[in-house]
Design a protein that fits this description.
Order of helices and strands: HHHHHHHH
Shape: elongated
Helix content: 55-70%
Distance between the termini: 69 Å
Radius of gyration: 29 Å
Number of helices: 8
Structural class: mainly alpha
Number of strands: 0
Largest sheet: none
Length: 181
């Protein structure tokens, strides 16, 4: 076919006309669209600049404390009688959460995304700590360090603001009671 087009002027001009028509049909000027960025950002309700400075500092403190407490488990494999392998896994998990908390303090807009992870970890830690204390596998004071997980979750929640849409919160972030429709 390429040989034929090379030698046939009418077919080459027909091919060029088809290419022009194809381009004309496929391409057109972009339609104007409204700028919805303000409405989208208003519904996303990211933390406001300067909001919750004390929360950010508290998150750093909780994160650094968790890092310090995780080092023996992570580096030495030493965690209250657990095997070295399990201790290092627990240490890794604690370091990951600590880094997440410190990062959220540095970049508050990301705090909301960390809430599900922190909630799952804090919830599991509280439930298993209560079970271990109730069954005599651990002492209450020995499980108190899990309060850091709960504190981190609460601080993330405070920094991120309410996950409810503003129409439910009145725009202030404070929760309003839900009513049946």
């Amino acid at each position: 076919m390429a040989d034929h087009l090379a030698g046939c002027l009418p077919c080459r001009s027909y091919e060029g006309a088809l290419a022009d028509l194809h381009r004309l049909v496929r391409l057109r000027p972009a339609e104007a669209v409204p700028d919805l960025s303000d409405a989208i950002l208003a519904r996303a309700h990211p933390p406001r600049a300067g909001r919750g400075q004390w929360i950010r500092l508290a998150l750093v403190a909780v994160g650094l404390t968790q890092l310090v407490l995780a080092l023996p488990a992570l580096v030495l494999g030493d965690d209250a009688g657990a095997t070295v392998h399990i201790a290092r896994h627990v240490g890794s998990l604690t370091v990951a959460l600590a880094i997440g908390l410190i990062y959220a303090a540095w970049r508050p807009a990301w705090a909301f995304g960390l809430i599900p992870i922190a909630a799952a970890l804090a919830g599991c830690m509280v439930v298993t700590a209560l079970l271990d204390v109730a069954q005599g596998h651990a002492q209450t004071l020995g499980e108190a360090h899990h309060l850091l997980d709960v504190s981190g979750l609460v601080l993330l929640w405070l920094l991120a603001g309410s996950p409810l849409p503003r129409r439910w919160t009145g725009g202030s972030g404070a929760r309003l009671p839900l009513r049946a429709v």
